[in-house]
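Lay summary

Proteins are chains of building blocks that fold into shapes. Our project writes down both the chain and a compact code for its shape. Here are two examples, one after the other.
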Amino acid sequence: MLAAVLILSGLALAGGGAWLVALRGSPYYLAAGVAALASGVLLWRGRSAALWVFAGWLLATLVWALWESGLDWWPLAARLDLLFVLGVLLVTPWVARSLGSTGLGSARAALATVLMLSVGIAVASWTVDRHDQAGSLPAAAVVSDAASAVPSDEWHAYGRTGHGQRWSPLKQITPDNVGSLQLAWQFRTGDLRGRPGDPVETTYEVTPLKIGNRLYLCTPHQSVVALDATTGQQIWRYDPLIQGELALQHLTCRGLGYQPPRAEAPAAAASAPATEADTSPQRVGLLVAATSTGAKAIDRCPAKLFMPTADGRLIALDPETGAICRSFGGGRGQVDLWAHMPNLKPGSYYSTSPPVVTQNLVIIGGTVLDNVSTKEQSGVIRAFDIETGALVWNWDSGNPDATAPIAAGASYTPNSPNSWSISSVDEALGLVYVPMGNQPPDQWGGQRSAAVETYSSSVVALEVATGKPRWVFQTVHHDLWDYDVPSQPSLVDLTVGGATVPALVQPTKQGEIFVLDRRTGKPLLPVEEVAAPQGAATGDHTAPTQPRSAVSFEPQRLEGRHMWGATLFDQLACRIAFHRLRYDGRFTPPSEGGSLIYPGNFGVFNWGSIAVDPVRQVAFTTPTTLAFTSTLVPRPDATSLMVQGKGEPQGPLPALNENFGAPYAAKMSAFTSPLGIPCQQPPWGNVAGVDLRTGQVAWKHRNGTVRDLSPLPLPFRMGVPNIGGPMMTAGGVAFLSGTLDDYVRGYDVSTGRELWKQRLPAGGQATPMTYAGTDGRQLLLVVAGGHGSTGTKPGDYVLAYALPR
């Protein structure tokens, strides 16, 4: 049996190895195939020389593995695991009895010696982590913009305040006591993914708000729930009655907007028109649905919660009762986000993220379908009067200079770049900071306008009062990689050259963290333009350079030696795939033959962003590095399905990546082995600490296990991807629940050392928050509901942790 295994393995390795050599890859696999065949044939014939050949093969593999990867356990394991198991079997007495006695003792000794050497090297590799960077962040406070109108024990916006820092001034939980955290209470919303019509990317990504002694959250299917913050008991629930048959690509709700009570009642303002939108029975019926079904309503709300819905509405609710605020939206308690929107297709446009709320305005963008067609909705950003819902201004990146409310009967620019993530606001400067996406299709840009080329994949500062653009900083030029700016900008005052400067910190999918003066958009830490690969598809072009920040988590350029797998065989398959793809480094353009995109559009950073401590002027970050592939498929016409099967699209679900109306459809996927694991070697996910004054990465550690990603619950700490953001506290502890194993973890901010972890009942792909209850205890709040696209366990949990009483 062993002889047959070796012979078959040899044939596979020799055949694949010859193919790899033809692709100018490593000759090792061809040589390994020959060695496997020779040892298998000799074993079949009962020759002890089989052990000598195998020992030589194992020793050569050990030397080759060390030459390629050094003392790095996981790359070594992929190269040696199968050989080691076969070698152990070959030295057993059962095999020895079938071999001739001539030279058998010395052959077994030689093989045993090489096996022992392999064990020694493996043990040595466990004592070091070549990817680990130890260090410490500065502890001294310098200057702080920590003062806020938000009480220290509350959380009023997605990032706690409009500055988007994800930092709390609470200090009760510290590195010394965080290990004692225990579950204080648990609430289940009853909202689980898997309903008819749910898209694959149905996710639970909400960060709740804490106001007074109440928590406010939304669920994936758009209900709004109020809980007692101390006990977790439900107080009220609101169901917005979402329209069915929606063309959804995503179904999620990241959070709510909150308007606190105003010191004085505003001067009498005209009510907003009921809607300036499409006045079809479908839309009008939708706008009156909540009141027509008996939902509670009050004329005017001193404070408001703002809830964006999947069918394109923005609803205002009373935080006290959950009643609709009639004064907003002309008596209906809602405004229609389809107003003046081109290409009406319910579900193809809505806001997955909470709006920005200022003293007088609620400001909101929205997501459009990615890579479905060239006739999608507008990426317009709109500001509504916070009391009446009247449209105050609109900024359309396809028509950026016209910000006055659009004329009756007019439409916004189709297919203009949108903002689907969370914006930040500095009301003292009078600016709202908007992270912008790309114009679909993402992978081909041959017909983009000058305005699109300016505002696509950028962060834009708009005047709060007028919506006029003050400045724009583009993070990717002529984006062909779906490198939308996915993260909320973090606003923080930094000490630069002895002066206090209002800064904006912007993480990106490609791994840059740009640190800008938020007054002007000028870099505070150096940004250089570096040469980028050329050679776009026919009719398109690539930018000659791309910006690179002094704070960069750009991953190491991939080579054949970085390919990985569970065994030699899938590692060989990954090497063959790697050499068949076009890869010229970061910003390799998509191609008809297939390109390797690294990092891929999953993003080094995504919507969870980073956490920023305004006192220490440091950031806690969660860089993820996964490679993807991108292949352009020529389209013969504007309607045929090219990457999703045959025929015409059916039903409301969108035909993703078909790019109807463009010259190419796009095939995109993670770069994985035949076993479905990443082709690049781990780690795939880390935590890292950054000094924002200098740009120095003080420490970096792999983060997370493969317990929930492998067929067996193996707790191997390999460093796994993260989707969901971190949170920091003044107590010196950071928290993160978004790794693709089902844990919430606490870390020492200074060193990044993991101090505490707790098993979650479902995937925790949301950003945690913290607050204090009426009993004075600081609570850590974690939402665990899973993420459809990453396959984490679904759930409907809201979990609060606290120190023992």
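And here is the second example, written the same way.
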Amino acid sequence: MPPTSTYRLQLQPEFPFSAAERAVPHLVGLGVSHLHLSPVLEAVPGSTHGYDVTDHRSVRAELGGEEGLRALAATARAHGLGLVVDLVPNHMAASPRHNHALRAVLREGPDSPYARWFDIDWRAGDGRVLLPVLPARLPEVRDRFRVSGGSLHLDGQEFPLRAGTEGLPLDELLDAQWYRLGWWRLARTELGYRRFFTISDLIGVRVEDPEVFTASHAKIVELVADGVIEGLRIDHPDGLADPQGYLEDLAAATGGRCWTVVEKILTGSETLPAAWPVAGTTGYDALRQLDGVFTDPVGADELADLYREFVGRAGDRGGRWEATAHRAAYEVVGHDLAAETAALTRIAGRICAADPGLRDHAPWALRTAIRELLVRVPVYRPYRTGGEEVLTPEAARGAKAAFAVPEEATAVDAVRDLALGKRGDGPEHRAFRARFAQTSSALRAKSVEDTAFYRYTPLLSANEVGGDAGRPAVPVEEFHAYCLRIARDWPDTGTVLSTHDTKRSADVRAAIAVLSQCPEVWAELLAEVAGVPAPDPHVAWTAWQTAFGLGAPDPDRLVPAILKSVREAGLRTSWTEPDEEYERAVSEFAAAGPGRIPLRTASEAAFALEPHVRAHALGAALAQLTMPGVPELYQNTEREYRALVDPDNRAPFAVGPEDERTALVRAALRLRRADPEAFGAGGTYVPLTAEGPAAAHCLAFARSGRVVTAVTRLSLRLAQAGGWQDTELVLPEGRWVDALDGVREFTGGPATEVKLAELFAERPVALLARLE
């Protein structure tokens, strides 16, 4: 049975399995059916997230080890709960001190039995694998090396030595290894192994190899077989060589006993590949719909105009979303992912040299073709099927325009054919096709999520994973169409509002999204705080809007978030090329202005928005808990939860005071758990349409004729238009009770319309359960 709902806990040394065990009674009281745990396998000591896996063979000792995990599972099971675990198949920590498999490869070279674990190009450079780990160039740190116990040591780092080299002079010893220690800045262009995005500390794992898959999944498969784990969240499947093949292997290994969802980011109208043997996604597509349906399109456009006027030249040139995203893609593929495009160029060059029909393509032409095609992939990556829909002839024509000589542009055709698997099926051909797709997903993530979303900021609530900053609003009809499709095709997919990766929690986004209903109020607020000097208008806009979403001034949380935003944007500073003077100015401004002034109560107009923030937050929460799919609550979100980007949103779980959100969550989840058939596969989703002057402000639907959800959308616009007036909603046939108070009753049927002013008299949302 799939979960009826899940609750995500962030495990870390400060919050191990035993702490999760103590939280079980509270979570049972909420009505969840499964606990969702962040990664549980061995990771780098002290890791607060667990995605830097070091050993797939054991459960993380810092969390309590396998004994602690099994004890948690037993306690959860005794209370009627199952466990869902976050699984990380794509990468491991690139730490030879802690990663036993990588350590063996570095010691033994390409003949190591573990060499097949990693995408290492031994033919790149001088035939050794570059480890970009030195804080400065080698000559500057040479005197800090020491040899001891068969290892090379530097500033707390440890590297294995090739057999027989321990007694060599230092320079000879360094040259004799299967690896080359280099300055960390060399990673951008010289890296010889596949990594996670642009993070050289995480090395890609070749789970497409059957032996690697078996070895890296044996412990998880054992825990599934023993009933300890009932569900799996697959982290970043787009990083894998063949996501579908991996998921098929996983389903076979677990015997189909697991509810499995994938962290797949869908773009625009893209849908999850139907052949994947999973229940669905982790829910970012639902988040996009939920955020969008509570955003006013007219006001969002006005905010965009105001943003361009306010920011001017301080932002990305022109201040248009599509152009911003396109420029970011070119920058990332040419700079951050230079090592990845170089690897693709090397593979393509070897293929072309061996194929009479592809010879004489210059490396620069292949590199240009690879770059131009990558930036034109409209989604995260192509898959085993459907590649022609991603790498279209139109994309090829656009790529060819980058060439001055038409004859040289034929490199585009060669690269496109290789990426689509049309020029052979040898090892190199398969490697190119896989690496092109893997690089495509990294490019999309880095250029959109981690760059453009920080450069284009008219309405920050739209700049979320899976979102569309250029089209922040979603019509009600589109929301219903999405829900109908999900109920039909993926009824057990995941849905979310906040996660460990969201840049702003749902409550922060709700407050910001309300500004789309009153851009004039936002303009007034900016004018009121104009006396606080900012380094530039772009950071001023972003910081003040972030502070508005957060609500209460808090410089200790706000300053790091704003610093991260300017580094990710890369307009004036970056992680690798910091402008210390600019960053100091940003910090001082954020602390003195947005971190000090309570913007949400700075004026009567701003304070008047609070009821509308509440209406959005409660409406989105109830819609998520009752729409098609399996809802996930991120830790602490059963009550008001204001959090910014990580690490702010990854603080340990703590039981807090209950509020009206808690009562709503408890009522909805208990309904789901008591009547799973109404919400899961086989259940129905029926849109309900209000009638009357304010009908557009009601979002309502019925689940299997047994539960009705009705929520208020765009409540400020509603109030400005005179309220509900005579707007009515026809409920399905029968008698209905308000599940949020257990008292109020309503009658459904075609001749018994319910006044929305009455339905929403107590609160801006209604959850009705049918009385038999």
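What can we say about the second shape? The radius of gyration is 27 Å.
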